[in-house]
Write a structure and sequence with these properties.
Strand content of chain B: over 45%
Number of strands of chain B: 11
Order of helices and strands of chain B: EEEEEEEEEEE
Strand content of chain A: over 45%
Number of helices of chain A: 0
Oligomer: heterodimer
Helix content of chain B: under 10%
Number of strands of chain A: 11
Radius of gyration of chain B: 13 Å
Shape of chain A: globular
Largest interface: A-B, 24 and 25 residues
Largest sheet of chain A: 6 strands, mixed
Shape of chain B: globular
Order of helices and strands of chain A: EEEEEEEEEEE
Chain lengths: 113, 112
Protein backbone atom coordinates (compact mmCIF):
# COMPACT_ATOMS: atom_id res chain seq x y z
CA UNK A 1 0.00 0.00 0.00
CA UNK A 2 0.90 3.66 -0.04
CA UNK A 3 2.02 5.42 3.12
CA UNK A 4 2.97 9.00 3.91
CA UNK A 5 4.43 10.12 7.23
CA UNK A 6 4.86 13.62 8.60
CA UNK A 7 5.13 14.98 12.13
CA UNK A 8 1.83 15.72 13.81
CA UNK A 9 2.72 19.04 15.39
CA UNK A 10 5.53 21.59 15.35
CA UNK A 11 6.05 24.94 17.01
CA UNK A 12 8.33 27.77 15.94
CA UNK A 13 9.06 31.40 16.68
CA UNK A 14 8.09 34.35 14.53
CA UNK A 15 10.96 35.29 12.22
CA UNK A 16 12.62 31.89 12.46
CA UNK A 17 12.99 29.06 9.91
CA UNK A 18 11.14 25.75 10.18
CA UNK A 19 11.52 22.53 8.19
CA UNK A 20 8.59 20.13 7.89
CA UNK A 21 9.59 16.64 6.79
CA UNK A 22 7.60 14.11 4.81
CA UNK A 23 8.54 10.53 4.01
CA UNK A 24 6.60 8.34 1.64
CA UNK A 25 6.50 4.67 0.73
CA UNK A 26 4.73 4.11 -2.55
CA UNK A 27 4.94 1.55 -5.33
CA UNK A 28 6.00 4.24 -7.79
CA UNK A 29 6.34 8.01 -7.98
CA UNK A 30 4.57 10.62 -10.08
CA UNK A 31 5.09 13.80 -8.10
CA UNK A 32 4.70 15.31 -4.63
CA UNK A 33 2.68 18.32 -3.50
CA UNK A 34 2.62 20.53 -0.45
CA UNK A 35 -0.57 22.28 0.58
CA UNK A 36 -1.33 24.75 3.36
CA UNK A 37 -4.63 24.58 5.19
CA UNK A 38 -5.80 27.12 7.73
CA UNK A 39 -8.45 25.95 10.18
CA UNK A 40 -11.86 25.89 8.55
CA UNK A 41 -10.51 26.75 5.12
CA UNK A 42 -9.64 24.98 1.88
CA UNK A 43 -6.15 23.58 1.27
CA UNK A 44 -4.13 25.95 -0.90
CA UNK A 45 -1.34 24.83 -3.20
CA UNK A 46 2.21 25.68 -2.12
CA UNK A 47 4.62 23.63 -4.21
CA UNK A 48 5.13 20.68 -6.54
CA UNK A 49 8.22 18.47 -6.92
CA UNK A 50 8.68 15.73 -9.46
CA UNK A 51 12.48 15.83 -9.88
CA UNK A 52 15.14 15.70 -7.17
CA UNK A 53 16.26 18.99 -5.75
CA UNK A 54 15.06 22.23 -4.29
CA UNK A 55 12.19 24.35 -5.59
CA UNK A 56 12.15 27.87 -4.18
CA UNK A 57 9.13 30.15 -4.15
CA UNK A 58 9.53 33.25 -2.03
CA UNK A 59 9.63 32.38 1.67
CA UNK A 60 8.69 28.76 0.91
CA UNK A 61 10.98 26.09 -0.53
CA UNK A 62 10.42 22.39 -1.07
CA UNK A 63 12.99 19.65 -1.50
CA UNK A 64 12.66 16.16 -2.92
CA UNK A 65 14.86 13.06 -2.85
CA UNK A 66 13.19 10.28 -4.79
CA UNK A 67 15.81 7.68 -3.88
CA UNK A 68 15.12 8.29 -0.18
CA UNK A 69 11.36 8.76 -0.48
CA UNK A 70 11.79 12.06 1.32
CA UNK A 71 10.67 15.64 0.99
CA UNK A 72 10.70 18.70 3.17
CA UNK A 73 9.00 22.07 3.17
CA UNK A 74 11.13 24.96 4.40
CA UNK A 75 9.44 28.11 5.65
CA UNK A 76 11.64 31.14 6.21
CA UNK A 77 11.00 34.42 8.06
CA UNK A 78 8.02 32.88 9.79
CA UNK A 79 4.95 35.03 10.31
CA UNK A 80 2.01 34.50 12.63
CA UNK A 81 -0.21 33.88 9.60
CA UNK A 82 1.90 30.81 8.77
CA UNK A 83 0.20 29.00 11.67
CA UNK A 84 -1.69 26.30 9.77
CA UNK A 85 -1.64 22.64 8.82
CA UNK A 86 0.80 21.62 6.11
CA UNK A 87 -0.21 18.65 4.01
CA UNK A 88 2.18 16.46 2.05
CA UNK A 89 0.56 14.53 -0.82
CA UNK A 90 1.79 12.25 -3.59
CA UNK A 91 0.11 11.40 -6.86
CA UNK A 92 -1.19 7.88 -6.97
CA UNK A 93 1.53 5.92 -8.77
CA UNK A 94 -0.89 3.71 -10.68
CA UNK A 95 -1.35 4.46 -14.34
CA UNK A 96 -4.16 6.95 -14.74
CA UNK A 97 -3.98 8.05 -11.12
CA UNK A 98 -2.79 11.47 -12.09
CA UNK A 99 -5.41 13.46 -10.21
CA UNK A 100 -5.73 11.04 -7.31
CA UNK A 101 -3.70 12.41 -4.43
CA UNK A 102 -2.69 10.41 -1.38
CA UNK A 103 -2.35 12.73 1.61
CA UNK A 104 -0.37 12.51 4.80
CA UNK A 105 -2.17 13.32 8.04
CA UNK A 106 -0.76 16.85 8.01
CA UNK A 107 1.57 18.79 10.29
CA UNK A 108 0.01 21.47 12.53
CA UNK A 109 2.44 24.35 12.79
CA UNK A 110 2.03 26.91 15.57
CA UNK A 111 4.03 30.13 15.23
CA UNK A 112 4.39 32.13 18.43
CA UNK A 113 5.80 35.63 19.03
CA UNK B 1 -10.74 34.00 -12.40
CA UNK B 2 -13.30 32.46 -10.04
CA UNK B 3 -12.13 29.61 -7.87
CA UNK B 4 -13.75 26.28 -7.17
CA UNK B 5 -17.24 26.78 -5.79
CA UNK B 6 -18.95 24.26 -3.56
CA UNK B 7 -22.54 24.38 -2.36
CA UNK B 8 -23.93 24.23 0.19
CA UNK B 9 -21.27 25.22 2.73
CA UNK B 10 -23.00 23.54 5.64
CA UNK B 11 -25.53 20.74 5.80
CA UNK B 12 -27.21 18.88 8.63
CA UNK B 13 -28.88 15.55 7.94
CA UNK B 14 -30.10 12.58 9.95
CA UNK B 15 -29.12 8.94 9.63
CA UNK B 16 -30.69 7.15 6.71
CA UNK B 17 -31.21 10.26 4.60
CA UNK B 18 -29.36 11.02 1.40
CA UNK B 19 -27.50 14.15 0.35
CA UNK B 20 -26.24 15.76 -2.84
CA UNK B 21 -23.28 18.13 -2.88
CA UNK B 22 -22.34 20.36 -5.79
CA UNK B 23 -19.02 21.55 -7.16
CA UNK B 24 -18.31 24.06 -9.93
CA UNK B 25 -14.67 23.86 -11.08
CA UNK B 26 -12.43 26.67 -12.22
CA UNK B 27 -13.30 27.66 -15.77
CA UNK B 28 -11.40 25.47 -18.21
CA UNK B 29 -10.69 22.70 -15.72
CA UNK B 30 -12.07 19.38 -16.88
CA UNK B 31 -10.94 17.20 -13.98
CA UNK B 32 -12.89 17.24 -10.73
CA UNK B 33 -11.87 15.18 -7.72
CA UNK B 34 -13.69 14.70 -4.43
CA UNK B 35 -12.11 14.14 -1.03
CA UNK B 36 -13.42 13.45 2.45
CA UNK B 37 -11.62 15.10 5.37
CA UNK B 38 -12.08 13.93 8.97
CA UNK B 39 -9.96 14.52 12.07
CA UNK B 40 -9.19 10.83 12.38
CA UNK B 41 -8.51 9.87 8.76
CA UNK B 42 -7.32 13.12 7.24
CA UNK B 43 -7.94 13.77 3.55
CA UNK B 44 -9.07 10.68 1.66
CA UNK B 45 -9.74 10.43 -2.07
CA UNK B 46 -13.28 9.55 -3.08
CA UNK B 47 -13.30 9.72 -6.88
CA UNK B 48 -12.28 11.75 -9.92
CA UNK B 49 -14.31 12.71 -12.95
CA UNK B 50 -12.97 13.81 -16.29
CA UNK B 51 -15.10 14.58 -19.34
CA UNK B 52 -18.20 13.18 -17.64
CA UNK B 53 -16.50 9.84 -16.89
CA UNK B 54 -15.31 8.48 -13.57
CA UNK B 55 -11.59 8.03 -14.07
CA UNK B 56 -10.47 7.03 -10.57
CA UNK B 57 -12.14 5.69 -7.49
CA UNK B 58 -11.08 5.48 -3.84
CA UNK B 59 -11.95 2.88 -1.24
CA UNK B 60 -15.37 4.05 -0.21
CA UNK B 61 -18.63 2.04 -0.18
CA UNK B 62 -21.10 2.20 -3.04
CA UNK B 63 -23.26 4.62 -1.02
CA UNK B 64 -20.88 7.30 -2.28
CA UNK B 65 -21.41 8.17 -5.91
CA UNK B 66 -20.90 11.07 -8.23
CA UNK B 67 -21.34 12.41 -11.69
CA UNK B 68 -20.05 15.14 -13.93
CA UNK B 69 -21.98 17.22 -16.41
CA UNK B 70 -20.95 18.47 -19.84
CA UNK B 71 -20.00 21.86 -18.37
CA UNK B 72 -17.59 20.04 -15.96
CA UNK B 73 -19.73 20.77 -12.90
CA UNK B 74 -19.88 17.77 -10.61
CA UNK B 75 -22.19 16.42 -7.98
CA UNK B 76 -21.55 13.92 -5.24
CA UNK B 77 -24.29 11.86 -3.65
CA UNK B 78 -24.26 9.93 -0.41
CA UNK B 79 -27.19 7.63 0.30
CA UNK B 80 -28.31 6.00 3.56
CA UNK B 81 -26.25 8.41 5.63
CA UNK B 82 -24.36 7.10 8.66
CA UNK B 83 -22.96 8.99 11.64
CA UNK B 84 -19.46 8.29 10.35
CA UNK B 85 -20.18 10.24 7.18
CA UNK B 86 -19.91 13.48 9.16
CA UNK B 87 -16.97 15.23 7.52
CA UNK B 88 -15.74 18.07 5.39
CA UNK B 89 -16.19 17.16 1.72
CA UNK B 90 -13.74 18.90 -0.55
CA UNK B 91 -13.82 19.23 -4.28
CA UNK B 92 -10.72 20.00 -6.31
CA UNK B 93 -10.31 20.84 -9.98
CA UNK B 94 -7.35 20.84 -12.30
CA UNK B 95 -6.23 20.85 -15.90
CA UNK B 96 -4.14 18.04 -17.34
CA UNK B 97 -0.39 17.70 -17.08
CA UNK B 98 1.76 18.60 -14.08
CA UNK B 99 -0.76 21.08 -12.73
CA UNK B 100 -1.89 21.16 -9.11
CA UNK B 101 -5.41 20.58 -7.94
CA UNK B 102 -7.21 23.64 -6.60
CA UNK B 103 -9.64 23.09 -3.76
CA UNK B 104 -12.99 24.62 -2.95
CA UNK B 105 -13.95 25.68 0.57
CA UNK B 106 -15.81 22.42 1.09
CA UNK B 107 -19.18 21.34 2.37
CA UNK B 108 -19.31 20.51 6.06
CA UNK B 109 -21.80 17.67 6.50
CA UNK B 110 -23.08 16.82 9.97
CA UNK B 111 -25.15 13.70 10.59
CA UNK B 112 -27.40 13.63 13.64
Amino acid sequence: GQNIDQPTEMTATEGAIVQINCTYQTSGFNGLFWYQQHAGEAPTFLSYNVLDGLEEKGRFSSFLSRSKGYSYLLLKELQMKDSASYLCAVRDPDKGGYNKLIFGAGTRLAVHP
Amino acid sequence: KAGVTQTPRYLIKTRGQQVTLSCSPISGHRSVSWYQQTPGQGLQFLFEYFSETQRNKGNFPGRFSGRQFSNSRSEMNVSTLELGDSALYLCASSTEGNQPQHFGDGTRLSIL
